[in-house]
Amino acid sequence: MTTADATAQAARAPCGLLTVDHKGTIVPVNDRFAQWLGISAPEVVGTPLAQHFTKASRIVFETSIVPLLTLKGQVEGASLDLVTRDGVKVPVLLSAERGGRRPRR
């Protein structure tokens, strides 16, 4: 499979896929994730991931998920709510893995 094939498959995946940089800004995002938010993928790129959560989920994300990623390097199955452009809550299960350097044990 070529890189182009893998990118095309990710864009059409039945789950939301995205990457955030070290500042929490969304870099690439697939169409499914953008569809959940009710906006286009190019509109999502460059926005902070945290702004797409409900207030309660943003607090959980910033106080629990980010520290776990920093310490353990991954999080699996965290239940959070996204919020669409129209203010509708979309429940999601978040799994994430930190790229780059791994924390020392």
Automatic annotation (TrEMBL):
Under Pfam families, the record lists: PAS_9
Q: Cite the Gene3D superfamilies for this sequence.
A: PAS domain
Listed SMART domains: PAS
Task: Please indicate which superkingdom the organism of origin belongs to.
Answer: Bacteria
> Which PROSITE patterns does the protein's record reference?
PAS
Q: What sequence ranges are listed for the domain PAS?
A: 17-46
Q: What is this protein called?
A: PAS domain-containing protein
Q: Which organism is it from?
A: Gymnodinialimonas phycosphaerae
